[in-house]
Amino acid sequence: HILTIDYLKHVSPCLLRPEAGEMHVALSAAQYVRHRIGFVKCSSRLSGGSFVAQIEIGGGTFQCTVDTGASSCVSLSRSAAKRVRRCTGDEPRKLRQVGVNGEEICSDIVAADVDFCGTHFADVPILLNDMDLEDVDGYIGLSLLRAFDMLVTSDELVCRHNGYELRTDLLDAVASAGV
């Protein structure tokens, strides 16, 4: 099942704890205050009903939608991808995605260092897409978000690194080498 940010805002305040497999909805004020300790403000900006958070990727700063329905770590639009300054690893791998409306997106998969909500990650798989987006630079998906507990209210997203590892292997089976 996909937990959309829109749904989470409607049952807020709510707490997602991926490493524990827990979701708590409609927290009382006392529960919210108790859980809020140790969390870092991630976003209070919304675009299209979703939170938009700042993330540093490969030496560049980006504004990305927090997308609990996306399986990848991070996906950047064509214009944003040009601002990534440092990538690591071998030649980029390729991936072709078909969206729910039949749109095709071709992506290069590179690795880059990522800083999100006060936590640094090395060699994170980044999808550099061939299409542009409106209003945001890209999406932050569950493969990265799983490393954070998330406390959601109707107007704020706060996160706390939980020590859970990123999922960096999801693209291995579907990516191809070369052009």
Overview of the structural elements:
The termini are far apart. The chain is globular and about 50 Å long. It has 4 helices and 14 strands. The mean pLDDT is 89. It is mainly beta. The strands form 2 sheets. A 6-stranded mixed beta barrel has the order 5-6-11-7-10-9. A 5-stranded antiparallel beta sheet has the order 2-1-12-13-3.
Total of helices: 4
Contiguous low-pLDDT stretches (5 residues minimum) are: none
- Report, as a whole number of angstroms, the end-to-end distance: 34 Å
Q: Numbering strands along the chain, what is their spatial order in the largest sheet?
A: 5-6-11-7-10-9
- Name the helix and strand elements from N-terminus to C-terminus, one letter apiece: HEEHEEEEEHEEEEHEEE
Could you say which structural class the secondary elements and strand pairing correspond to?
Answer: mainly beta
Radius of gyration: 16 Å
Beta strands, count: 14
State the shape.
Answer: globular
Proportion of residues in helical segments: 10-25%
What number is the mean pLDDT?
A: 89
